[in-house]
Design goal:
Elements (H helix, E strand, L loop, with lengths): L1 E5 L2 E3 L5 E8 L7 E7 L6 E7 L5 E3 L7 E6 L4 E6 L8 E9 L1 E4 L3 E5 L2
Parallel strand pairs: 2-11
Antiparallel strand pairs: 1-3, 3-8, 4-5, 4-9, 5-6, 7-8, 9-10, 9-11
Length: about 110
Amino acid sequence: VQLVESGGGLVQPGGSLRLSCAASGSLSGVVTLGWVRQVPGKEREYVASIFWEGGQTDYDNSVKGRFTISADKANNAISLQMNSLRPEDTAIYYCHAVAYGNVYGRGTQVTVAS
């Protein structure tokens, strides 16, 4: 599985962004697709995930109610709609697949600042 993210950028606090992740290759072994984020110098942290077959979603408490993850199975893609963004959401966001091991994309920068 190969993952390519898009949609990052600069947004003011309270604003919205939508991230997308295009998956290619064989998805037959994929259990979940989701997002993690990382601030330089800090550990990578979980954001959200979706079960590829069943569609169940899960969120970290820090984003619950503000972020929504969705899947587009026809196009082998997922999206993360991020609303009510806060400065502490600033990070590099990586698309993540749990398949036969963990797979990550290259990441996309999200910056929340006035």
